[in-house]
Amino acid sequence: MIRVLHLPDSIEKRNGRMSVVMSIYRKLDRSKIQFDFACTDYGFENFEDEIKELGGNVYKIPSNENSFKNIKSMVNDLLRTGRYSFLHYHALSKWGCTLGMANKYHVKTIVHSHATELSDTLFKSIRNRIFSLNIFNNGDKLVAVSPEAGKKLFIFKKYTYIPNMINYKKYAFNKNNRLNIREKYGIEENDVLIGNVGRLSIQKNQEYAIKCLKHIKQSNFKLMFVGDADNNQQIKKIKDLVLSLGLDSKVIFTGMVTDVERYYSAFDIFWLPSLYEGMPTVGIEAQANGLYVLVSEAVSKNLDITGNVRFLEIKEDNIENWANLTESLVKTVKSHDVSAITKIENSEFNSKKVIEQWKKLYEV
């Protein structure tokens, strides 16, 4: 059996990287390939129970103890057991300091780029670039979720493009889900609901979405944020903006939910004004549901699988264009695209194709 030690930094359910890895893990023949995870425990809801049910192990370091010394010690102890064939590194973080250890134990390293920017601040970007320097000497295989993500991290090095995969049928439009979710949150039949799914964070740029909502002229538009915040300060900042613009009756915060697939059916259109992304799984999920997606130009053009994606600039002077295009699409698009699932099945995001690429990565 091939055993892989993954270094995703976090195994949180709200983490896009982990959603991708878990989608693959569930579909692999686990009698041939097994995953273990070494990670930082940040205290949020995570996939640990499911990983163990699937036959994997989770090794955690508390967030207040994740020093370079402790990380190196843990990974060294794991690699020296001889159980692992591959060390698979996903997030630019302190965990990258362990890549150089793999060769000592005859373990191959895989470096996976998931984002088109190194971070959302200059300081963190510089720090993460430093964290990434050793991948050029210690990465046996380089992988990216999109061409943009590959070029950003690997620069001049050759890499393999493997698109993200989701269980897209799980996100298909469901009329009962639409009625139930809208009733739960008091969304009237004639209300137009704009959806946004993901962490409330600087990267996801929810403040821009709120400003765009303010510019929508029709009174029956509402905006729903599905997800929790990186910290209390971030959620307060976003909610303060809602209040200052007088939108408190039009913006809904659901917090973290465990049945996010049901929420897409309640939406009429999907917004993704992120400052950067690699290949956002929520954008694929929204398309699988048949929704039109308005997305930042910072996101990979490969996201448009169904022909229902529109890319827009996220500059302050383009806010009105987001509002106008949203109103225009809602007028012309009368229902969810029922052919969306078929379009995804016929694309490079097809589950079987992506699984075969991952198996090839592990030389199975």
From TrEMBL:
Q: Which UniProt keywords apply?
A: Glycosyltransferase, Transferase
Query: What is the designated name of this protein?
Result: Glycosyltransferase
Instruction: Give the species.
Output: Limosilactobacillus mucosae (Lactobacillus mucosae)
Ranges for domain Glycosyltransferase subfamily 4-like N-terminal: 20-167
Name the top EC class.
Answer: transferase
What Enzyme Commission number does this protein have? Answer: 2.4.-.-
Entry coiled-coil feature ranges: none
Domain (Glycosyl transferase family) ranges? 179-331
Q: GO molecular function of the protein, one example?
A: glycosyltransferase activity
